[in-house]
């Protein structure tokens, strides 16, 4: 489903070059829910941006649904994101002058889907995330948890191959965090959608099927929670 | 992306950012209003001049006179039997002219002379009146309107135009004024008084009048004539202009009797001195004139005056200058839109980034901004149309206040100037939106997911 091969990335300020990712390789199967775990500065956000096609890596390849996104130009990437990638942001990133339903529909607007069809789909997703009654409200009238539910519904509307969730519970209290994690788990199971959750919280990572841990730009461990296997330096071994 | 979605998203932004929308729309509306008002002034001035020209020069009329030149072709017997071959104006030729395509009216026209008119109750006209023999029934066909009375077959009857009803004063007063003027010809007060009495209207309907004509043997007087009708004042003319334009229309039979009374040269009873032909469309004047010339008669129009006056007034220059001012204002307005929208792009870069992350491509982002700019242009254009009506209303009010003439130039907004003004406003919006739109589409999507 998603394969990262020998991915390296460095930033240059014209004088010196700083490497932020070193030879990262891992893969995610369809329907899996994995966590990219790491502390601040570990390179997890850079990895997310690269996988989402928002940045070009210095080296390496990224395959999603069999296509190497590193080779794509900006418009091809926009087209690819439109149909294969969903996003959930820490700060929700909803558009204030649109209603909840309109926000959920937005990715389909860029696909020129008929208004009636996208409305039907948006309402069904709002039902799934538990806020159908908020459909015609503006996002400013919702709580943080409710806004994140809208963001989740929006990420699912195009039925993407993979959803990237960037610190999805970062702005929420513990109770709401639990609710959101449960929604993500439920959707992962019922919709068979691949989730890649970027987090710095061990508790959140522990709720996923696999944890990829980054430290100082290196992939440290790749822990399969179901099989209780931990892989370090490229090999899995039984715990 | 569907057009309805692009428009809706753009309209949401226009509604949301009220200050920017207001400033941009105000700039465009001023430019648009300037274009509409400028073009309207040009059009109104042109129409006014044309109206004035028609009023004085009768641009849609052809004066037909007998051809006195050598006659060609045909034998003497043919010429005698077919009067159309002769240069004279016969009734047969008049009927042919009436039947011609685009001829609205044709009527015989006999100018007797300019004479002094006075009423039997002792009022006398300050300026001389031209007496014309014609078919009184045809007066209305030539655009005249009766405000009192109407045409009649009655003998010794006369129809006066509006100018002929002005400036009738008592003989004694007239003589006194004349005397004062002769004694002190540069006295402003006397001149003013003389002019004021000259445009004083009198009720002439059903009054009896007479004409006095100066001959070598002394003055001769016409038979008394009854005023059976008074014509309406022509629109677009002032009393000052009309007080010198005095006309009295009599039937051809009455004209013949007046000629006898006043010892004027008498015409051939079988023919007319001249015929006036009115066409239904000024553009057909030349065509009709050529047809009439085939009847071996002489024709004359005032068409050449049109070109002369058009050259003098240079309406096209007025229009071009006005349009230039409007376009200049729109260019200034467009700079404000570019600045406002570029700022808006900067403020909305996060939103643009999110849209790009959600799958919007460069073209879709660009289109949203261009449509937004076009909506600003449209809004400005609509406001501009309203402003232009308001400005024209103000100018007209000012003209009325400053001018004592009832028929002063009134500016009107021709319908075709509205789409032109709107098109300029829309084009300004779209052109001004191109740079901010390109700038917006180049926004780095990463800014959307970067956290400060």
Automatic annotation (TrEMBL), chain A:
It comes from Paenibacillus endophyticus. This is ABC-type lipoprotein export system ATPase subunit. InterPro entries: AAA+_ATPase, ABC_transporter-like_ATP-bd, ABC_transporter-like_CS, ABC_transpr_LolD-like, MacB-like_ATP-bd, P-loop_NTPase. One of its GO terms (cellular component) is plasma membrane. Keywords: ATP-binding, Lipoprotein, Nucleotide-binding, Transport. Gene3D superfamilies: P-loop containing nucleotide triphosphate hydrolases. It comes from the Bacteria. One of its GO terms (molecular function) is ATP binding. Residues 2-237 form the ABC transporter domain. It holds the Pfam family ABC_tran. The keyword RNA-binding does not apply.
From TrEMBL, chain B:
GO terms for cellular component: plasma membrane. Belongs to the ABC-4 integral membrane protein family. It is found in: Cell membrane. This is ABC-type antimicrobial peptide transport system permease subunit. The chain crosses the membrane at residues 20-42, 321-346, 367-391, 411-435. InterPro entries: ABC3_permease_C, MacB_PCD, Macrolide_Exporter_MacB. Residues 21-294 form the MacB-like periplasmic core domain.
């Amino acid at each position: 489903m998603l394969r990262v091969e020998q991915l390296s990335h460095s930033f240059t300020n014209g004088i010196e070059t700083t490497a932020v990712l070193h030879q990262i390789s891992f893969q995610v199967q369809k329907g899996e829910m994995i966590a990219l775990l790491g502390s601040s500065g570990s390179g997890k956000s850079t990895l997310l941006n690269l996988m989402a096609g928002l940045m070009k890596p210095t080296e390496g390849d990224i395959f999603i649904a069999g296509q190497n996104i590193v080779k794509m130009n900006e418009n091809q990437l926009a087209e690819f994101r439109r149909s294969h990638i969903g996003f959930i942001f820490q700060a929700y990133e909803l558009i204030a002058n649109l209603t909840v339903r309109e926000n959920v529909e937005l990715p389909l607007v860029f696909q020129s889907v008929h208004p009636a069809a996208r409305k039907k789909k948006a309402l069904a997703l709002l039902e799934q995330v538990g806020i159908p009654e908020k459909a015609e409200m503006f996002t400013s009238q919702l709580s943080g948890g409710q806004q994140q539910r809208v963001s989740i519904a929006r990420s699912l509307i195009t039925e993407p191959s993979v959803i990237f969730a960037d610190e999805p519970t970062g702005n929420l209290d513990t109770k709401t965090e639990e609710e959101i994690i449960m929604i993500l788990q439920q959707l992962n199971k019922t919709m068979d959608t691949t989730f890649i959750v970027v987090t710095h919280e061990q508790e959140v990572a522990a709720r996923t099927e696999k944890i990829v841990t980054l430290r100082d730009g290196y992939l440290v461990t790749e822990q399969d929670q179901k099989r209780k296997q931990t892989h370090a330096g490229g090999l899995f071994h039984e715990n | 992306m569907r057009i309805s979605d692009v428009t809706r998203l753009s309209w949401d932004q226009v509604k949301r950012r009220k200050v920017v929308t207001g400033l941009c729309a105000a700039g465009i509306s001023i430019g648009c209003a300037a274009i509409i008002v400028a073009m309207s002034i040009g059009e109104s001035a042109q129409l006014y001049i044309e109206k004035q020209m028609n009023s004085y020069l009768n641009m849609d009329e052809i004066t037909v006179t007998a051809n006195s030149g050598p006659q060609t072709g045909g034998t003497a017997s043919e010429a005698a039997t077919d009067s159309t071959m002769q240069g004279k104006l016969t009734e047969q030729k008049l009927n042919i002219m009436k039947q011609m395509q685009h001829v609205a009216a044709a009527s015989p026209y006999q100018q007797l002379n300019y004479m002094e008119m006075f009423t039997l109750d002792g009022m006398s006209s300050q300026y001389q009146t031209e007496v014309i023999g014609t078919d009184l029934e045809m007066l209305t066909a030539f655009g005249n309107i009766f405000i009192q009375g109407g045409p009649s077959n009655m003998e010794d009857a006369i129809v006066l135009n509006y100018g002929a009803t002005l400036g009738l004063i008592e003989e004694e007063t007239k003589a006194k004024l004349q005397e004062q003027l002769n004694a002190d010809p540069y006295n402003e007060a006397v001149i003013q008084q003389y002019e004021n009495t000259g445009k004083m209207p009198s009720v002439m309907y059903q009054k009896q009048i007479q004409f006095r004509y100066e001959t070598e043997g002394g003055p001769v007087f016409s038979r008394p004539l009854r005023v059976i009708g008074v014509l309406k004042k022509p629109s677009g003319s002032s009393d000052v202009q009309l007080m010198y334009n005095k006309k009295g229309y009599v039937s051809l039979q009455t004209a013949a009797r007046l000629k006898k009374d006043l010892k004027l040269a008498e015409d051939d009873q079988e023919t007319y001195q001249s015929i006036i032909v009115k066409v239904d469309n000024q553009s057909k004047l030349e065509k009709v004139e050529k047809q009439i010339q085939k009847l071996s008669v002489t024709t004359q129009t005032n068409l050449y005056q049109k070109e002369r006056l058009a050259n003098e007034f240079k309406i096209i220059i007025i229009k071009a200058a006005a349009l230039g001012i409007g376009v200049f204002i729109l260019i200034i307005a467009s700079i404000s839109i570019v600045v406002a929208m570029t700022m808006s792009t900067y403020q909305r870069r996060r939103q643009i980034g999110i849209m790009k992350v959600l799958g919007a491509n460069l073209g879709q982002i660009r289109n949203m901004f261009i449509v937004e700019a076009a909506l600003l242009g449209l809004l400005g254009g609509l406001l501009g149309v309203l402003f232009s009506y308001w400005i024209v209303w103000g100018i007209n009010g000012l003209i009325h206040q400053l001018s004592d003439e009832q028929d002063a130039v009134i500016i009107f907004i021709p319908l075709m100037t509205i789409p032109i003004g709107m098109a300029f406003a829309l084009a300004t919006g779209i052109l001004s939106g191109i740079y901010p739109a390109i700038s917006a589409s180049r926004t780095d999507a990463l800014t959307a997911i970067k956290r400060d």
